[in-house]
C-alpha cells in the first residue's frame, strides 16, 4: 500500500462526529465516503467534514476508493455490516462490541482471515497517551510484579440523562457489555488473556423511567442485569475484581488499580485517552506513633491526545508496514468471550472457563505522531 488509506464510514449517528473530526485530520488516512440507512443524514455529515461521496451503506461498500470500512452501526448490526465489508474486500474497524455471540463473531474472524483482510475493534482508548504511558511504566517495573487488579464503573444509570435509553438496558448492553469492553480490553492488554470468570448479577428494577427529552415519563423494560460483579482469573496467575453498575447512588467512573509486589498504580479512565497516572510504594515497618502516610508519585502522560480514530490510523500504518495492529479483532473477540462468560456465570452461579485467548498486545512505537505523514 502506498499513500493514505481510503476510509468509508457506515453509520452517521452521534459517534460519527468525533470519528470524522479526527480521521479527516490524519494525513495517513483519507475519508472518501459516508453511508447510512438514512442517506440524507450521511450527506449532511459528509458535507460538514468535506467528504466527497455519501449515500447508503451499499454505496460505501461499492466505492473502489474505500480500503477500510469504519463500522459505527448499532451493536446488533456489527457482525452483519462487518461481514458485508469483508465480502467486498475491505478491511474493517468496528465499534464495540465486535459482536454479540461467539459463533457469529468467530465466523467473522475466519471470514476476514480467508479474505486476507484485517479486523480492528474498539476501544482504541488503548492507544491514547494515558494508557500507553501507564503500560510502559508497568512494564519497566515501577510497581514490581503485577499481583492483582481492581476496577469499578458505578452510576445511577443512563436513563437519568439519555432521551432514549432502552437499548442500554436490552440484550447486548447493560453495564457489562456497554462499559465492560473498555475495562476488560485495558486489563487484557496489561496482563494478558483471562482464563476464567465468576460473576453475580442483579436486576433490582424490572422497569426504568425516561427522565429527559420528548419521551420523559415513559417506562421501558430492563432485560439484563443492571449491576454485575466479576471475579477474573488471568492466565498469567493474577486475579481481579470488577464492578459494573447502573444502580449506584455513588457516581464513580474510570477506576482501575493495579497492585504489584513493589507498589500500587492508578490508571486513567479506560473510556478516556488521557488521565491521571500515579503510584505509591509500600510503607516500611510501623513503629509506635507512626502515621500511615503514603506519597503519590505522579507520572505525566506522554504523547499527543487525539481521540477515537487512533485505531483506524494504527491499522493503516500497520497494513503498510506489514506489522500487527494493536486493537485487533482477536482482542475484541476475547473480551466478548469474557463478558458473555460473565453473563453465563451470573445466571448459573458457576465459574466459567474462557475458551479463547489472545496474543500479547503490543505498545505503540515511542514518538507515535498521528499528524505525521508516513504513507
From TrEMBL:
Alphabetic keyword roster: NAD, Oxidoreductase
InterPro entries the UniProt entry points to: Gfo/Idh/MocA-like_OxRdtase_N, Gfo/Idh/MocA_oxidrdct_glycsds, GFO_IDH_MocA-like_dom, NAD(P)-bd_dom_sf
Keyword Oxidoreductase: yes
Domain annotation GFO/IDH/MocA-like oxidoreductase: ranges: 131-265
Gfo/Idh/MocA-like oxidoreductase N-terminal domain mapped to chain residues: 6-119
Coiled-coil segments: none
Transcription keyword on record: no
Family matches, as Gene3D superfamilies: Dihydrodipicolinate Reductase, domain 2 (3.30.360.10), NAD(P)-binding Rossmann-like Domain (3.40.50.720)
Pfam families in UniProt: GFO_IDH_MocA, GFO_IDH_MocA_C3
Protein name: Gfo/Idh/MocA family oxidoreductase
Taxonomic superkingdom: Bacteria
